[in-house]
Every structure is written in structure tokens, then in C-alpha cells.
Amino acid sequence: MATPATKKAAARTPTTAPTAPTPRLAPEEREQLIVQKAIRYFAEYGFGASTRDLAKEIGVSQPLLYRYFPNKQALADRVFEEVYLSRWNPEWEEILADRKRPLADRLHHFYQQYSKVILQRDWIRIFIHAGLSREGINHRYLTRLRERIFNVVLAELRREFKVAEPTAQQYEDEIEFVWGLHAAIFYVGMRKSVYGLAVPQDIERLIDQKLHAFMASAPSVLKNIRK
């Protein structure tokens, strides 16, 4: 029969094993975890939170956040690198410039790969939030897009359809023509990730349709620009 002393001892004994302490993360792992949580937060709510609120939402203390990122702009810059620069494939430029393949095939190959990157929820939503809050992410990214993609596409279109080099104004008109194709693909992501609307399941087929219309109209558009 249990004595009062043994009953007290049993009451002090835990009925389940103690929870193992959370393993300490290496600084690089901790920084990456903060960045990934910041990406999710910025994608959902934008860039308006203070560093105090941001640290709370991410799940770290404000001093710890400052240890890795001295201010919110530094964290936003790191998010830009992670979401936009690290996902940029330098082979895209090589694909578009490879004249051993028909231009239509090159555009198809590029946009099928590129769409898989830009039509992600975090990519779309951070891009929109950044544009509204003037964080500078959009300008840096779009400058790269124009220099490394649009200019290559236009050079190959001129060669394909034997069109003369443009004047400054004609070049800007050509850029607008390429923007039309690019924006049409981007807007698929907008409909899904911003507006919450249904989009076609077969994105590859949808992109093929847009590319076909683009290439079919390109000769007349480029020549009309020069009139």
C-alpha cells in the first residue's frame, strides 16, 4: 500500500518525457530561416510593418533581427536577392540568343521556363507590394529584364524579319510591343495570386497561344513602327 511520502513523490514525477530542447541553429541557418519567413510575410502583407512588428510576426526578437539585418531595408534587399536574383537563370539569355534554333522555339523554351519562376505566389505578390510601397525592387528587376531579355528578343526579331535598326523612338515602341507579350503572361499570375481568380490548368498551352499571336503579328508591327 502506498504511503503518503510515496504518493507525494509520484505526484512530482512527470507522466511524460520532457520535451527535447530546440536545437540551436548555426548563424547561416538562422539567417536563412528569417529570410524565408520574411518572404512569406512580405508576400502576404507587404512592406508596411515596423521592424518590431516584423520581428514578432517572423518569430524572433527585435535584437536578434537587428543582429542579422540592421534595418527593414536591408531585409527587403535580401528578400529581393532571394526571390528575384537567385531565381534568375543566366542560361535564359543564351537560349534566346542561340541562332542554331528557330526563334519561335527559343521564345517557347524561354517563356516556359520563365513562367515557372514568375508565376509563383511569393514572386507575384512581393512584386506588387514592392511597387506600391516604392521599395525599389521593381525598378532594379525591370532594368535587368529590359537589358538582358527584351533587348535580346528585339535583336532577334529584327534579324528574323529583316527589319532595320530602330531610331530612339522606334526602339521605345518596340519595347512596348515586347511588354505586351510579357505582361500577358505575368497577368495570369496576377489573376491567380492577387485576385484569387481561376486560371487555366494548362499554362504551357496558354503561353503557346500567346507566343503564336505575338510571332504572327511581329512582322507587321515592327514594319508599322518604322512608318
Structural topology:
Layout: H1 4-12, H2 27-45, H3 51-58, H4 62-68, H5 72-85, H6 91-97, H7 103-118, H8 121-133, H9 137-161, H10 168-193, H11 203-225
Helix pairs in contact: 2-5, 2-8, 6-7, 6-9, 7-11, 8-10, 9-10, 10-11
Q: Helicity range of the residues?
A: over 70%
Mean pLDDT over all positions: 89
Number of helix segments? Answer: 11
Give the C-alpha Rg.
26 Å
Strand content: under 5%
Describe this structure in words.
The model is unreliable at 5-22 (pLDDT under 50). It contains eleven helices and no strands. It is elongated. It has helices spanning 4-12, 27-45, 51-58, 62-68, 72-85, 91-97, 103-118, 121-133, 137-161, 168-193, 203-225.
Spell out the key features of this protein.
single chain; 227 residues; mainly alpha; elongated; 74% helix; 11 helices
